[in-house]
Amino acid sequence: MDDTVIVGVDGSPSSLVAVDVAAEEARLRGARLRIVHAFTRSADLDPMIHGVLAEAEQRVHERVPELEVVRTVVSGEALTVLRAEARHAVLTVLGRRGRSAFRDLLLGATSLQMATHAHGPVMVVRGRPEPQGPVLLAVDGSPAGNAAASFAFTEAERRGAPLMAMHVWNTWTEPTPYESPADPLSVVVDLPQLERRHRQLLEEAVRPWMDAHPKVLVQPRLERARVRPALLAATREAQLVVAGARGHGGVAGMLLGSVSQALLHHSDCPVTVVRFLG
Fold first, then answer.
1. Are 29 and 56 spatial neighbours (Cβ–Cβ below 8 Å)?
2. Angle between helix 13-29 and 143-159 (nearest 10)
3. How would you classify the pairing of strands 122-125 and 91-95?
4. What are phi and psi of 129, to 5 degrees?
5. Predicted confidence band at 248 (pLDDT cuts at 50, 70, 90)?
6. What percent of the chain has a predicted confidence (pLDDT) above 70?
């Protein structure tokens, strides 16, 4: 990866908001910003270059005057172009919805597919404007979660923000033993034991990153609740939420997971998905 943050621009209001956020992300990293536009019809090219792309670059110069900005215009389908650009970027920033004809969609297809398949971290800008608060890390103990933890701790240190490491558990997804094979409806649930196990999972998930980032104030948060509603509620007090995605398989939903998809569709702050490629 080189020191470049890329942002996809298609002329939609959402993509211009993403430009503002991407400029700040590039400033935080001491990186350059690359504004990327993919086109499929040459008739659209001149208005885009002299209209929306010029406006996007002007917004960046007004927001972060010292930032190095490059415009890239590539012929091709948006997802293909952005995936190629993202291979060499430290971060890809996208608006939550592009110039789709399906205006009622919560999340644009390009943003969802990039979050699922891009090789580098992908930030989808959504939620309230200029959010404040801690960096929120969704902890699940998986290898994908470990990749997300590394990114989240680095982000918290870079921003001078605390890190809220949140793990949500409940009995509905727990494998629970039967009291007796002859009585399958009699279920024994040892709640204190389950809570201790999940607390240990949370502690073990963050301990290596606490050692690597001693300046980061960590706020562990263990909740027994429904996972998606609890995390979505926590995004209302966060400036950024970070979640992991698996790196193998062919079905987008299986790659990304229902929790990450819920965050991308409903979070009240920007969402960064970090893909585990192991």
1. no
2. 70
3. parallel
4. -70, 140
5. very low
6. 84
> Tens digits of per-residue pLDDT, 141-187?
888 788 999 999 999 999 999 999 999 998 876 654 444 455 554 45
Q: What is d(CA 141, CA 246) in angstroms, rounded to the nearest whole number?
A: 13
Structure tokens at 84: 């190629």
d(CA 61, CA 69): 8
User: What does the alpha-carbon distance between residue 107 and residue 270 come to, in Å, rounded to a whole number?
Assistant: 13
- Concatenating the DSSP letter of every residue in 93-157 gives EEES--S-S-TT-SS-HHHHHHHHH-SS-EEEE-SSSS--SPEEEE--SSHHHHHHHHHHHHHHH
> What type of residue is 177?
P
Q: Whole-structure pTM over 0.70, yes or no?
A: yes
Q: Are the beta carbons of 146 and 120 closer than 8 angstroms? A: no
Alpha carbon 220 to chain centroid distance? 20
